[in-house]
Write a structure and sequence with these properties.
This protein is mainly beta. It has three helices and 57 strands. It has a 19-stranded mixed sheet that branches. Strands 16-18-21-24-27-30-33-36-39-42 form a ten-stranded parallel sheet, with no helix packed on it. It has a ten-stranded parallel sheet with strand order 19-22-25-28-31-34-37-40-43-45, with no helix packed on it. Strand 3 and strand 4 form a beta hairpin. It is flat and about 100 Å long.
């Protein structure tokens, strides 16, 4: 490609001066390919003889806006170069256009597809733009494009997957989009300088794990995508949102990520039933929000460490959130509940060293209890509502701990008029008007909560599988004190019951070997439970269930037939072994821990078979 402009730009920006023997073309003004097929201005170095194919004859030093459908724009290996602002090539509400063989550099936005359909990109290179690439839309057609890996951002390929199932994205990706796809893995990539680091549109059951996602507008943007897992990523310095779950993106899990320095660490809008857990979220600067929930009911936010310069968690027009066991510190407002956000439950959180712990406006019937409010400098809680919220869980469960409560504990009972202390203050803690904690705690609330997590070696195995199948359970005590519980494992292969004692903050690992060699083809359930401990409020995580599929040899995805999807899964994991990022245990058909030609042979020898 024509590299003169590229190298001139590098010298200029890196050295801060312009050598006398290098000449820059001046900006020519925005170039338009108009809806009637004309080129504006006519002096632009683009020509066409049929109003279909438009070919560059030189580089262009300003933006290009395409207003015509059903065309081909051939950059002929020339450059579209900006001066640090604007958009290189912009398509808005366009259909059936091809952009090929062009370099785009030096803009705020390199190439943008907005509400456009059926766009083809070939051999396009975007680099040294603030945000190289962007695809945005409102319906599925706005995301269906033909964009292959011949296109690149910052020298790394674009992987734009459409209508795919059961594949892994190569870790050399520069931009990733998953469109109308399922069961995709994006693991170990470094994604930067795009509007979306990872785009999920109409995508389900996919895993975004262990990536470095930095300096984008949105680190990860989900649009009408559900049942995905976003876990273990480093998501930093994305200007808008670290993770955005947008427009009916429901039942997703965002967990164990580090999310730093975004306007919204994790944003949920028009979406429900998502789980946000065990993330570290920090942002500093004006109007930064840790977790932002907008017009989105029934989400769960728990065990996150949240620190911002503004609102730790902001709930706006969103009812029925469950917010618990978060450590919310150093914010202007720990939690801000605003404008018609009723029936939220806030419990077992620590609000410490904020200006305000909780701030409520125009939101009623929220339930706040078993929280610790410690050293919040302006006020522990502010409540501007016309109807009361509930600030305790009755007697003897109690309310919240307020470190500025100066009451006594000489009495007990539901009316605090019986002789003897009970750990609950004898007089209420007044918050605002009708908002009163009737049973303030005398000491910080001690969490009583245990959890079980499980993982099985393989969930799909062939009939007659002769090797032992291992399943692991981690039992976690999230409280500070020792707890005793009853553990029960139930399956067709094994029944087990025992009593466990866990010290404060202890994790206990249990490993079981299952013999599946005698099981006939079919679906089998494996379940494990731990009994709730005294005082435990959240019991949804006290059980684990896994489905095990016994199927015909060669069936990798567990649908009781052997087809091209099974071959694809094996080839995607070929030559990997246990511990590798791309290793897929379901593709290890012979169970030797390595995906080899023997696994391919097993699959191929049963190709076309299906279970009646």
């Amino acid at each position: 490609m024509k590299r003169l402009a590229f190298w001139a730009t590098i010298i200029f920006f890196s050295m801060g001066m312009l050598a006398t023997n290098i000449h820059f073309a001046k900006a020519s003004g925005t170039v338009y390919i108009r809806a009637d097929g004309s080129i504006d201005p006519t002096s632009a170095p683009i020509s066409t003889v049929d109003n279909v194919t438009y070919t560059f004859s030189d580089s262009i030093y300003d933006s290009i806006v395409i207003e015509r459908d059903n065309i081909i724009v051939d950059g002929a290996n020339y450059t579209v170069q900006g001066s640090g602002s604007g958009t290189g090539i912009y398509l808005s509400n366009r259909n059936n256009a091809t952009i090929k063989n062009v370099e785009i550099l030096g803009f705020s936005y390199g190439l943008r597809l907005y509400r456009s359909s059926n766009i083809m990109l070939k051999h396009d290179e975007m680099f040294f733009n603030t945000f190289n690439f962007d695809v945005t839309g409102g319906t599925i057609s706005h995301f269906i494009h033909d964009i292959d890996a011949s296109n690149s951002v910052n020298g790394k390929p674009i992987y734009y997957l459409v209508n795919l199932r059961g594949v892994s994205v190569p870790s050399d990706a520069g931009y990733v989009a998953l469109v109308n796809s399922t069961d995709i893995i994006v693991d170990g990539a470094t994604l930067e300088n795009n509007v979306q680091g990872v785009l999920l549109a109409y995508t389900t059951n996919s895993f975004i794990t262990r990536n470095i996602i930095v300096n984008n507008s949105y680190g990860i943007w989900c649009f009408e995508s559900y049942s995905n897992v976003i876990s273990g990523n480093s998501i930093e310095d994305n200007s808008q949102a670290g993770v955005s779950l947008d427009w009916h993106s429901s039942e997703n899990t965002v967990c164990v990520n580090t999310v730093l320095n975004s306007r919204w660490g994790i944003a949920i809008s028009y979406s429900s039933d998502n789980t946000i857990r065990e993330n570290r979220i920090e942002s500093y600067g004006v109007n930064k929000i840790g977790v932002y929930i907008y017009e989105s009911p029934y989400n769960i936010v728990y065990r996150n460490d949240i620190k911002t310069d503004w609102n730790g968690i902001y709930v706006f027009w969103s009812p029925k959130q469950l917010i618990y066991q978060n450590y919310i510190t150093g914010n202007n407002r720990g939690i801000y509940i605003s404008y018609s956000s009723p029936n939220n439950t806030i419990l077992e959180n620590v609000f410490q060293d904020n200006d305000e712990g909780i701030h409520m406006e125009h939101s009623e019937y929220n339930h706040v209890y078993h929280n610790n409010f410690i050293n919040n400098t302006y006020r522990h809680a502010t409540c501007w509502t016309s109807s009361p919220n509930t600030w305790d869980d009755g007697y003897p469960s109690g309310g919240n701990y307020w470190n500025d409560y100066n009451g006594t504990d000489f009495y007990c009972g539901p009316y605090q008029n019986e002789t003897g202390s009970d750990g609950i203050g004898d007089t209420p803690y007044n918050i605002y008007q009708d908002n009163i904690d009737n049973f303030p705690l005398m000491n910080p609330y001690a969490v009583h909560d245990i959890e079980i997590k499980g993982s099985i070696e393989k969930t799909v195995v062939p009939e007659g599988y002769s090797k032992q199948l291992f399943i692991n359970f981690t039992i976690a005590n999230h409280g500070q004190q020792a707890e005793t519980t009853n553990f029960t494992l139930h399956s067709e292969m094994l029944h087990y019951n025992t009593i466990l004692t866990l010290q404060g903050n202890e994790n206990l690992l249990l490993v079981f070997a299952l013999n599946v060699s005698e099981l006939a083809k079919g679906n089998y359930s494996i379940s494990a439970t731990i009994m709730p401990v005294q005082g435990e409020t959240i019991t949804a995580d006290n059980g684990y269930t896994e489905n095990l599929v016994i199927t015909i040899p060669g069936d990798v995805d567990g649908d009781f037939d052997v087809d091209i999807f099974d071959i694809v899964r094996i080839t995607n994991a070929y030559a990997t072994k246990i511990g590798d990022l791309k290793f897929n245990p379901q593709s290890d058909l012979d169970g030797d821990g390595v995906i080899t030609i023997f696994d391919v042979v097993i699959c191929a020898s049963h190709y076309g078979q299906e279970d009646p």
